[in-house]
Design goal:
homotrimer; 101 residues; alpha+beta; four-stranded antiparallel sheet; N-reg_PII/ATP_PRibTrfase_C (chains A, B, C); copper ion binding (chains A, B, C); Cation tolerance protein CutA (chains A, B, C)
């Protein structure tokens, strides 16, 4: 399985992405946490923004469609989108992810 | 080293798992955060639950026993359990993890 | 890209590390969350501490200098420092990370 993350400034938008990605069967589980404080550079300026973070648990075969849907729903010009591959997943959790996709 | 995650609805249960896994030498450090909001499908229905998340830092050789203990203590039928392998760990942190196992 | 984590007991110190690492071009983005509750063993005793967590998004070529700066600024004797390699990053996000380094 893979774990993917994005973040955005509106909690309501984040909840919408969580709901729609699970409804469309593109992630087994999406977790929302925040507020977090993000520090980054945008157009040469140091920015500090309050954001909400989404963490997706998905099967590798869902990754391309999930990335596309998140980018369609995400309000940012350049959304954060990183996926990490799990080295180990419990058998039960993997079976559940496969059955809920 | 590996990083593993699970989540559960009771903060008290989460604290118990954190304490017992460290006491039994199965993780170097366990971090609890939350509440988070989880969205997933369970028996065909979309569910949204408030949960607490545990993040374990462990040595690969602790993984099997840690997974077994977490599953014994975890109240869910299908607990989340994903492990990711670190590409890089600082030397000091790795030494400390080895000495505290 | 890589994702790296550390944690520390002072939110103010964490904000300082976030700002300085981005200012010096050693991470594309740093996210601060907390408070979290950390459980670990230190000199034989079980400890439970409130901490703040930093999550860095970086290019692999920034990793060595970022690790060195974080360790210079971090108040702990043995700071947490783990990096994970992303299996997939969106093209736009990667371009942005390269341009903001």
């Amino acid at each position: 399985m893979w774990i993917a993350w994005t973040s955005l400034s509106s909690r309501e938008d984040a909840e919408g992405i969580a709901r729609q990605t699970v409804e469309q069967g593109l992630a087994a589980c999406v977790q929302l946490d925040g507020p977090i404080r993000s520090t980054y550079r945008w157009q040469g300026q140091l920015e500090q923004t309050e954001e909400w973070r989404l963490c997706f648990k998905l099967l590798p075969e869902q990754a391309a469609a999930l990335e596309a849907l998140v980018h369609r729903l995400h309000p940012y010009e350049v959304p954060e989108w990183l996926c990490v591959e799990a080295a180990q997943v419990s058998e039960k959790y993997l079976s559940w992810a496969r059955s809920s996709g």
